Amino acid sequence: MAVITCIEDLRLLAKKRVPRMFYDYADSGSWTESTYRSNQQDFEQLKLRQRVAVNIDNRSLRTQMIGQDVAMPVALAPVGMTGMQHADGEILAARAAEKFGVPFTLSTVSICSIEDVAEHTRAPFWFQLYMMRDRDFIGRLIERAKAANCSALMLTLDLQILGQRHKDLKNGLSAPPKPTLANLLNLATKPRWGLGMLGTPRRHFGNIVGHVKGVENMGSLSAWTSQQFDPRLNWADVQWIRKRWDGKLILKGIMDAEDARLAADSGADALVVSNHGGRQLDGAPSSISALPAIVEAVGSRIEVWMDGGIRSGQDVLKAVALGARGTLLGRAYVYGLGARGEQGVTECLDIIRNELDLTMAFCGLTDIHQVDAGILLNVPRPAGG
Questions:
Q1: Which residues fall within 8 angstroms of residue 243, CB to CB, at 6 or more apart?
Q2: Which fold has domain 7-375?
Q3: Would you kindly state where each structural domain of the chain is located, as residue ranges?
Q4: How do residues 255-270 score in pLDDT, each as one tens digit?
Q5: Is 276 a catalytic residue?
Q6: Of residues 120, 204, 276, 369, which has the active-site annotation?
Q7: Could you tell me the pTM of the whole model?
Q8: 374 exposure class (CB count in 10 Å sphere: 0-12, 13-18, 19+)
């Protein structure tokens, strides 16, 4: 049994165990992947102030995100097709998050449905929504999220059109996946994954198939999804959602201070500084570099969170230092899921918590609410605004 010490260990194990087309789907960016890389690299440029001879006993990472108690300022981000990283992936990740005490966010394009996750968990989870042309379907999705007692709705704003991801094209990733010789040969090398998938009926987009007229299988799904992402999405649509959802609303995909002001004006409860993990506009800045200007612009009016490039508890601490009141983990927990199922997600969260706790202590602090830019040696100045 491999000894897991960091997120990179989970990534390497997931790469061995998950079929290439699904591993690459989660672990790729658009075009040259420059933004995907800078999301991680820009964290590394931030240096920490080490303090000594300070009482660092009795430390606490507990805080709140949109009024919800969390074990640390971390939630699991919505990731499409998580159930293809490991059989019943969304259920397993949600259970791990519940036991750990952090929120789980289910993607619209999940394999396990809203109802599946609700049936197998007790803690309320969050639901992520893409705006589709079929507004009737969106309305029904919102009602299903209410029925499942979802405690927040996360509206993703940066996927009106799809960025080109070269690896997906080369792997023939589609709905359904193309059974090329290369894909079939690769699948044959992943027996653990294959046995898991044979043991579950959840192998298609559970929130969509059977819930849209004319979409009864993966084949008809492909034609529907290719036409559904709505390039007309605008702030009036955000108000349309707001009227139908009276719970907590999170807007994901904000990278500009002007858009952040519009997000605050919309009445949303939180926004997520996010470039979709570098999967949309290649050449956009990293999320962590965009964070300070957005916090400066609207941090007093709306909760500002961030995602993109977080691979350690130190990254979480640096985001909090720059003003984020919460962070989202995407690829980091997906690596854990692909590597070891529910246990791997728990290991991911344990790694993040341990690194966050120890690093905060090395910086001379005992409570996550004490963390600010004073723990950084090279505080980036907000650009724009």
A1: none
A2: TIM Barrel (3.20.20)
A3: 7-375
A4: 999 999 999 999 999 9
A5: yes
A6: 276
A7: 0.96
A8: middle
